[in-house]
Amino acid sequence: MTQCNRQQHLICPIQYIEVYEFKSYYLLFGTNYKERRRRYWLFKIEYDEQGKLATIEILAHQLEQRFMAYGLVGFVRFLHGYYMILITKRKKVAIIGSSVIYKIEDTVILPLAGSKSAISIEDGKYLKLFVSVDLSSNFYFSYSYDLSHTLQYNLSPVHVPNDLSTDERVGIKQNPCTMFIWNSYLQIPLVKAGLQNHNWFLNIISGFIGQSHIYLPGSSLYLTIIARRSAKYAGTRYLKRGSNSEGYVANEVEIEQILNLSGRNNFTRVDLGNELCKPSTKHFARLFAMYGSPLFCFNLVKSHRGQEYRLSHIFKRAVNYANLFLADDKQIQYVYFDMAAKDKKKGSVMESLARIAQRMVSKIGIFVNGPELPCNSRTVEGLTWARDPISNEAGQQIQTGVVRVNCVDCLDRTNTAQFSIGMIALCYQLRSLGVVDKKKLDFETDIIRLLEELYDDCGDTLTLYSFSHLNDIVQSISRYYRNAFSDAEKQDAINLFLGVYKPSHSSHQLEEQYPKVRPSDAVEQKLWLAPELISCLPRSFNEVNKYKDSHSACLQIVIIRKGDPSIDTFNEYFHMNELTFFDSHYSIAHINHSSSLYVTSNDLKEISPFISRDIKEKLKQ
User: Fold this and answer.
1) Is 340 exposed, middle or buried (0-12, 13-18, 19+ CB in 10 A)?
2) pLDDT higher for 125 or 195?
3) What is the CA radius of gyration of the chain?
4) pLDDT, position 299
5) In terms of DSSP bridges, do strands 53-57 and 40-47 run parallel, antiparallel, or are they unpaired?
6) Residue 155: C-alpha distances to residues 103, 455, 543 (Å)
7) What is the CA 155 to chain-centroid distance, rounded?
8) Please, which residues have CB within 8 angstroms of residue 577's CB and are 6 or more apart in sequence?
């Protein structure tokens, strides 16, 4: 095995799908450009009398087009037939490097056998429930960027086989993190049908992606927030609690903050989850494997007597028990903060959170990727840096560890804590890129207001319902109504979409098929952290394993030639064969700009996003 320094992620070439319909089957024509077809694929999808799905890749013919799609989400079967889900509308929402991130705007679901009038009554019930999971709400995808992994993992190196020369440019397509892929279950029929071309598989994530543009003299900053909602043990707030026996907690979300300047990338990440029950050690082991150490458990549950107090006490005991079998330098760091109690004492909640966030971020560090600068991250004080022992690339520093934030039924508390951590991390990011030399950014600066807006939007999006604009009485009534009438149906729809519940002729009850927590799960496990995982700490086991075992981490490792469209990031971004308009370009029309939000008429001489300004005058104008 040899290391290749010229590796590049492959671009999915199937970005436009033409759908042709026949009486008993569909033909899908996939290409990488809308106008000029430089590469194309065609395969036939049919549903036989035995109830099996068959796919056969064939050559192209002259056909009458039904419609155009931008990606294949997958297939689902209820009782009597298969249905195909396709993306028909998309919208650019972010750019990471040269990779474009899209939000799903509209989809279509097509029955494979007969017309819609032939859909049975039983299938019709399940179909209505299935489509209630609105894919146009908060689902995202990219043809050239793996949204299921963090930026640090995506840029971590892989080994290539000895038969591939290190002088050649190598393209890789890595395995996604199935924890954050929401259409994994919908892709299974394609795998069982024998389709081996992975270019037809388009992975989608659920959550939030937001990006803001900050003007700088002669350059620009792009501030991006990516929140990935876990597909494991997902559901509504009141019907999905605790964790399952595999250690997946209810409605877990990973939040990643990326700052990009002139091709140099820099990010910090935070892991957010709700309340935790046994088996907690499996949950902690997964966090160590994904992020390394130190692991901070930031508990925001209230300290007054009651259910929250008891839950907080049990959680602290779980952390203390897990630490009994860890070395001192690998201990789980338990951090507690009662936001409500602090607010009642008329203390500054934000200042207290900022001090806690400063301590945590300084220990886990941030990921920096780019050429070394005189004012590079190595000169940033108060930050613990870990040089990547694998790549040993100049200008690259890695983040080791993560902050896990939890609360109970209060997204406002968790979102406020996330914003505080993001604000401290943003200051380190700006200093590491040589943009500012300040050790602290004021709340009244444009860039902090942009960051606050991103986290507010993220919080409102992640919750299935938001009450930040309602008074207490209306909020209570709304919660009661949704809990009594709406949440149960939403939970059933999510279970059906994710394959947690699989329809059968013998039972029509939407019973969950999650692994249950058994009494044996509560038995003490002294060796709960695997030795191979411990040996990688403080580095993430997943990132180390990607380097050591590239075959298990990557779907494809191929040599790519000059001019190969699979790495043509220029055309991937600009789409030179399509007619576009300057004022509709993403960077002009679809992103928040710092200067357009807060700069007033009195600020024209000083438009820096890093100075404090009075927003009251802006609101009056």
Assistant:
1) middle
2) 125
3) 25
4) 93
5) antiparallel
6) 23, 25, 10
7) 16
8) 33, 34, 35, 36, 571
Please state whether the peptide bond connecting residue 538 to the residue before it is cis, i.e. omega within 30 degrees of 0.
yes
Q: Is 589 helix (H, G, I), strand (E, B) or coil?
A: helix
Mean pLDDT, residues 560-573: 74
Q: Where are the beta strands (DSSP E) in 200-324?
A: 205-216, 219-229, 253-261, 264-272, 295-299
| Report for 243-257, 305-319, 520-534, 557-571: range of highest mean pLDDT | 243-257
555 by DSSP, 3-state: which?
strand
Helix (H, G, I), strand (E, B) or coil at 111: strand
Nearest Cα to 177, choosing from 291, 85, 332?
291
Classified as helix, coil or strand, 516 is coil
Q: How many CB atoms lie within 10 A of CB 48?
A: 11
For 306, left (φ over 0), alpha (ψ -120 to 50), or beta?
A: left
Strands (E), 78-197: 82-96, 99-111, 139-141, 159-160, 169-174
pLDDT over 80 (residue 101) = yes
Three-state DSSP at 541 gives helix
H helices of 307-406, in order, are 307-323, 339-344, 349-364
Q: What beta strand segments (E) does 217-263 contain?
A: 219-229, 253-261
Paired sense of beta strands 67-69 and 53-57, if any? unpaired
Positive/negative CA dihedral, 326, 329, 332, 334 = positive
Residue 583 is encoded by which pair of tokens? 């004022």
DSSP summary character for residue 415: H
Number of helical (H) and strand (E) elements in the chain, helices listed first:
19, 25
Q: Tell me the per-residue pLDDT of 351-374, one tens digit each, with 9 for 90 and over.
A: 899 999 999 999 999 998 876 554
Q: Which pair of structure tokens corresponds to residue 129?
A: 């429930």
What is the spatial distance between Cα 466 and Cα 449, in angstroms, rounded to a whole number?
Answer: 21
Cα distance between residue 201 and residue 204, in whole Å: 10
3-state SS of the chain: helix, strand, coil percent to 5?
35, 25, 40
- Ramachandran angles phi, psi of 293, nearest 5°: -125, 155
Distance from C-alpha of 469 to C-alpha of 432, rounded to nearest angstrom: 37
Q: How far apart are CA 7 and CA 4, in angstroms?
A: 6
70, 84 Cβ separation under 8 angstroms:
no
Residue type, 56: I
Residue type, 473: I
Confidence of residue 471 (pLDDT cuts 50, 70, 90): very low
Q: Is the dihedral of CA 572, 577, 580, 582 positive or negative?
A: positive
Average pLDDT, the chain: 78
Q: Please give the structure tokens belonging to residue 118.
A: 């032939």
Report residue 389 CA to chain centroid gap. 26
172 band by pLDDT with thresholds 50, 70 and 90: confident
